[in-house]
Design goal:
Elements (H helix, E strand, L loop, with lengths): L14 E3 L12 H9 L2 E5 L7 E4 L2 H9 L3 E2 L29 H7 L7 H5 L2 H18 L3 E2 H6 L1 H11 L6 H12 L5 H21 L8 H10 L5 H31 L1 H9 L4 H11 L10 E3 L3 E3 L2 E3 L4 E4 L1 H4 L34 H18 L4 E2 L21 E3 L1
Helix pairs in contact: 5-7, 5-15, 7-11, 8-9, 8-11, 9-10, 9-11, 10-11, 11-12, 13-15
């Protein structure tokens, strides 16, 4: 332990109040920007929960904390940790709050669906569904709400396709997803939507215990049938994966808001289709995709991070948004550079809890960017940028609607 390591017996960073207010457009959180300037490891208090937590913002430190088994998720279950959502109650046994080896066992059951082969399996159907949505929007004519017409139904439909959710249940899935991920409806509405979604998945998984199909509910049903995971674990994982579809809707909404307010970026993507995969990666790095931070960890031992001694029992958050703007890793980090290489962004997380849907998200985003820009070359906002409504009380940031014309 170095002599200049900060110990709680000596000088420690002050606890900064982080109100996590709704931010307009693609503005970067000014409180997070201040915290990044104050040091690689600071202390914060969020609107919900109790107490304070360490915040880790530097790219290398974020990767270290997320990879280090001395920072665990299961211990969060027994603590009132400061958090963004006032009514959020972690579900015991949920994959997001498991540590290895149980977390590894659960993730392994659906891994095949999220490999390159598994994602490729839904490409043709995804492209067809996207074409149908764009056809309908163009037939109806301008103006249109791009979010309602395309950006919201498409990722949910693709996720349902990968999950094996029947067409008859997809509208309900979309409604439940929105209610679960919003903090503005209150705890009762959110929890009821989660229970209803869980019941739907319980029925689907139970039906597929003998299935040899490769969709997620079939893989989960087979794993339950073999006794590798419980039905409760399978349902919890299915809910978590389904919710990921809404995150794509919000992220791609921010992305199109950015392209429509920075038309030079959109024009470059139209004229140079070969750069789209790299450009999508850079946009994923740059877009501030969430409010504040996600799920916390608890230090299971004393650990030094960024010159700070974090004690066993302390709550710790990492900020992937901050890591993606680390100037030591991303030169001129606030600039969108489609030629940026390498681009080791952490938009899908890091460590054992990284988002399994990274390849699926890239597929959906590349299909959306390509199809919308190519098929609607005159696309532009139908209202001034400041009049585009953004979601209130949402954990994942994005426009409520994206009024466009062409």
């Amino acid at each position: 332990m170095s002599d200049d390591t900060i110990d709680r017996a000596g000088t420690v960073p002050p606890v900064r109040d982080w109100p996590a207010v709704d931010l307009p457009g693609t503005d970067f959180d000014p409180v997070l920007a201040e915290l990044m300037r104050e040091g690689p490891v600071t202390r914060v208090s969020l609107p919900g929960g109790e107490g304070w937590a360490w915040l880790v913002t530097r790219h290398d430190d974020v990767r270290r904390v997320t990879d280090d088994p001395r920072f665990g998720r299961e211990a969060v279950m027994d603590r009132q940790v400061t958090r963004i959502a006032p009514h959020f109650v972690p579900a015991r046994g949920a994959v997001g709050f498991l540590d290895p080896p149980h977390h590894t066992r659960l993730r392994r059951s659906v891994a095949a669906a999220f490999t390159a082969r598994g994602v490729e399996r839904v490409r043709a159907r995804s492209r067809a569904m996207l074409g149908e949505l764009l056809d309908a929007m163009l037939r109806a004519g301008p103006p249109a709400d791009l979010t309602e017409a395309v950006l919201s139904p498409f990722p949910i439909a693709v996720t349902c396709e990968l999950m094996g959710v029947p067409a008859a249940d997809r509208h309900r899935m979309r409604t439940w997803t929105r209610l679960v991920l919003s903090a503005s409806h209150g705890a009762e509405v959110s929890e009821r939507a989660k229970r209803e979604m869980s019941a739907c998945f319980a029925g689907l998984v139970a039906l597929r215990a003998d299935s040899a199909d490769e969709d997620v509910t079939s893989l989960l049903g087979a794993a339950v049938g073999r006794g590798e995971i419980t039905l409760e674990e399978a349902v919890g994982l299915a809910v978590l994966l389904q919710l990921g579809g809404e995150a794509v809707t919000n992220n791609i909404g921010q992305m199109f808001y950015l392209l429509l307010t920075r038309p030079e970026l959109a024009e470059r993507l139209r004229s140079e289709p070969e750069i789209r995969p790299r450009a999508v990666d850079e946009l994923l790095r740059w877009i501030p995709h969430r409010n504040a931070v996600g799920l916390s960890r608890i230090a299971l031992a004393d650990v030094e991070v960024g010159g700070v001694r974090i004690r066993a029992g302390d709550a710790v958050y990492v900020s992937y948004l901050a890591a993606n703007r680390d100037p030591e890793v991303f030169p001129d980090p606030d600039t969108i550079d489609f030629a940026r290489s390498p681009n080791p962004h952490l938009s899908f997380g890091s460590g054992p809890h990284h988002c399994p849907g990274g390849m699926l998200t890239r597929l959906e985003t590349e299909l959306l960017v390509g199809a919308v820009l190519d098929r609607v070359p005159g696309l532009r906002l139908a209202v001034p940028p400041e009049d585009v409504p953004f979601k209130k009380g949402a954990l994942i940031r994005g426009p409520e609607a994206l009024p466009v014309t062409w």
